[in-house]
Amino acid sequence: MTEHMSPAVVDREQWLAARLAHLQDEKDFTRKRDELSSRRRELPWLEISEDYRFEGPDGERSLADLFDGRGQLLVYHFMLGPDWDEGCPSCSFWADNYNGTEVHLAARDTTLIAVSRTALSEIERYKSRMGWGFPWYSSLGSSFNYDMGVSFTAEQIGAGEKLYNFGTQAAFADESPGISVFAMSDDGRIFLTYQTFARGLDMLNSAYHMLDLTPKGRDEQDLPFGMAWLHRHDQYPSRSD
């Protein structure tokens, strides 16, 4: 138990009363979340007519090809730029949650992939190091990342233009995280149905949600920045250090 934690210690009856009161708050939140998800599904769609091209282990693929025969596509914009030595630690934290989900998503007509604006060889090298199995494609040479609002030029960054997160934040780096959701109609037309960035990505990170259940929570309030504690999963100090 840390010094900043000062929980009340009560008997079973008082504990149960407090828990039941909080359960009502949780139920209210769940209903509001369901309502928000319903409104999200009612958002208008944007047709994508650009002929984007991606490189994968099996060669060049179109955006339509990335659906892999399904009607819905989730694209995680992984921060790995063309001159980077390794992937972003935060994106790597998020990607650790993706392994093993593909089969379940596929059962609901959905494909999950990652896309980065770097050479496929760099993607494959880092993917092998991390032990990930989800599909991951290169968009290098395409305007895809720029058009999706996750890659920015040096001039844009230097000017402090508010381009990230739907124009609400300045571009702080040449690559930023996000997720784009696409749907394909029966006649093959492709639509952008949803995007989210920054804290909107929290919903994809089950490890954070697990920490939210604990007494310490994410325990980041005293850190220089939110994820200052984070390492790539193969870079944490051993318990014997």
Explain this structure to me?
By secondary structure, this protein is an alpha+beta fold. The chain has a domain at 46-204: 3-Layer(aba) Sandwich (Glutaredoxin). It is 30% helix and 20% strand. It has a six-stranded mixed β-sheet. It has a two-stranded antiparallel sheet with strand order 2-3. The protein is globular, with a radius of gyration of 21 Å. The model has no long low-confidence stretch (mean pLDDT 95).
Could you tell me the CATH topology label of the domain at 46-204: Glutaredoxin
Uncertain segments are none
The N- and C-terminal alpha carbons lie at a distance of 22 Å
| Largest sheet strand order | 1-10-9-4-5-6
Mean pLDDT: 95
**What value does the Rg take, in angstroms?**
21 Å
- Number-wise, the strands total 10
By CATH reckoning, the class of the domain at 46-204 would read: Alpha Beta
User: H/E order of the elements?
Assistant: HEEEHEHHEHEHHEEEEH
CATH architecture heading of the domain at 46-204: 3-Layer(aba) Sandwich
Percentage beta strand: 15-25%
